[in-house]
Amino acid sequence: MSSIVHYECRNPDHIRAGSRRGIGGTVIHHGSVGYCDGVNVDGAHRWVPTGGVPIEYLYDGSPAVDGPGTYRANDGALVHVRPSAGGKLLFEVDGGRFAARTDLHVGVKLSDDPDWPDTKPVGIAFLPAD
Ligand SMILES: [Zn+2]
């Protein structure tokens, strides 16, 4: 069930604050429902009438990249996400025809292993036994 939202907050500081992805953020404004997507923001909303839309229209509901691993993009390409030395994440997209694309929506996470589904040799430890 989705809420119909009549106002959305367009305060640039709130937009930059990061998306709350529809969790909370609804405010009653002039007797109608308003939605602010900003995380950890309070007041100073800049309300813009939406004409009445489902709340899902006002934020990006696609799953977020939550760390290194292999993800499936919405067009089927595999996206390998690796940690880099600088602490940022490196994105690598499989497939020649997808690699040239500039706008890729990352969907479900398939594995925590950035190299999935490539198999690596499994390390086996030999324990001393008498
Ligand atoms: Zn706001």
Tell me what the structure shows.
- The chain is built from two helices and eight strands.
- The chain folds into two domains: 4-58, no CATH class; 69-111, no CATH class.
- 7% of the residues lie in helices and 34% in strands.
- It has helices spanning 12-16, 96-99, and strands spanning 4-9, 26-29, 32-35, 47-54, 69-73, 78-83, 89-93, 106-111.
- It is mainly beta.
- The strands form two sheets. The protein has a four-stranded mixed beta sheet, with no helix packed on it. The protein has a four-stranded antiparallel beta sheet with strand order 7-6-5-8, with no helix packed on it.
- The model has no long low-confidence stretch (mean pLDDT 82).
- Bound molecules: zinc ion.
- The site of zinc ion has 7 residues, from loops.
Number of continuous helical runs: 2
Hetero ligands: zinc ion
Question: Which parts are unreliable, with pLDDT below 50 for 5 consecutive residues or more?
Answer: none
- Termini Cα gap: 65 Å
Order of helices and strands: EHEEEEEEHE
Shape: elongated
User: Beta-strand level of the residues, as a percent range?
Assistant: 25-35%
Specify the structural class. mainly beta
Number of domains: 2
The whole-number mean of residue pLDDT values reads 82
Helix content: under 10%
Largest sheet: 4 strands, mixed
Notable features of this structure?
single chain; 130 residues; four-stranded mixed β-sheet; 8 strands; 2 domains; binds zinc ion; mainly beta; four-stranded antiparallel β-sheet; elongated; 2 helices
